Amino acid sequence: MLVDFNTLPEESKVWIYQANRSFTDDEIVEIESKLDTFLSNWAAHGSDLQAGYLVKYKRFIVIALNQNVNNATGCSIDASVHFIQQLEKDYHVDLLDKMNVSYKQGDFIAYKTLLEFKKMAKDKAVSKNTIVFNNLVNNIMEFNENWEVPASESWHGRFLN
Q: Which of 3, 20, 83, 129 has the fewest C-beta atoms lying within 10 Å of its C-beta?
């Protein structure tokens, strides 16, 4: 059951998928339509899952699930991963590689491999104040408070001196 992301309780589980490039405006319209359809029909053992989504900065797909209504099961999580894999194929984009880092450079969202980010940290091209996206947050409350943070307040900080 699709609901507005902003109406979900703050303890709702989140999954964040970062793209290796920005989506075009037309792609976002298509992706949002596909998300509407998928989440409207998403279920666990026949029970509706109450979920919502956001597309942020033309680069991140954030799906949230209200676990107070029903929990995702292995099959429903598999279905969501297959849905994301299909988006990867449809739009020739990488959404599942967790070994990449996105961060802000002014108004621009930069995307680097973890190795490139480590090298940039070593070369002082990024600092502890660089705003990074911590895609390891678990719920909406953490998403709202700890998703966009200075690198020093995220797991990224371990690469900075």
A: 129
